[in-house]
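Try it yourself: sequence plus zinc ion, in.
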Amino acid sequence: MKRTLVALSLAVFTAMAACDTKPKPTVPPAPRSEEDSITALFKKPGDSVPPTARWCTEMFPSQAADSFTIEKMQAGVLTAYKWKWQLGQPKRITVRFNDGIPAIQDRIKTIAAKWEPFVGAKFVYVPSSQEADIKISFQQRGASWSRIGTDSKGHSPSMNFGWLEEETVDSLFEQVVLHEFGHAIGLVHEHQLPNGNPIKWNVDSVYAYYLNYPNYWTVQCVKDNIFFRYQRNQLNAGMFDPTSIMMYEIPARFTTNGYSTPINVRLSPEDKRLVSDVYRR
Ligand SMILES: [Zn+2]
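Structure, out:
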């Protein structure tokens, strides 16, 4: 499970550009009858606009400047994106909100703090006018994502929450905040780990879902975020953990072997163990 921490993370997907979605039609097609549970959960009575995708996409270290390839990135990532502390200094990761409302910001702070005992550091919030390690925005509606580990330093925003509202129920709020902060401390998606991963993708079904309503991902984005798997030597990871907060919800129709996972909304024991282990080194 473990996701890889920081390190591993690596790079995952190639660049942010790889995850730009295709232009959405002005008039979306009618929802399918087999709406996914997570999408349905976000749909509110009376919504005139169909719910948008609720899938997190990892944001890889920028490749824009030097035509990074995943292969190149794999080489040194293991420790490259893990937060490190200066001797004698408080162990802290600074965070700021670029925008957003206090009620939602406060809920994020409370939930994100659940990672602190395992990282061994505090998230310290600074005013939006100050420099920070992690920069949070709410501007990109429908999309939630985060840069991985210390790659957050070079980007603003480095994390986006695209569907949190004051009325969002606690479980879904907690799920996405713990997940994105998991990326921010270096974790990658669980379904892309190599160790003991039982998922056999139904490629046609996965493409049919992600390339169309309500997601409109590009083919490259699907390859990078769904099918790509890290190699063992890239990760500081243990065995695949289906209960990880970094696991996607996977419906059985996405696999050829009947494998499926529900939405995980809290840190698993292995999430805690792995992060504690990595940040103790
Ligand atoms: Zn994610």
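One thing you can check immediately is this: Confidence is low (pLDDT under 50) at residues 1-18, 27-45, 47-53, 61-78.
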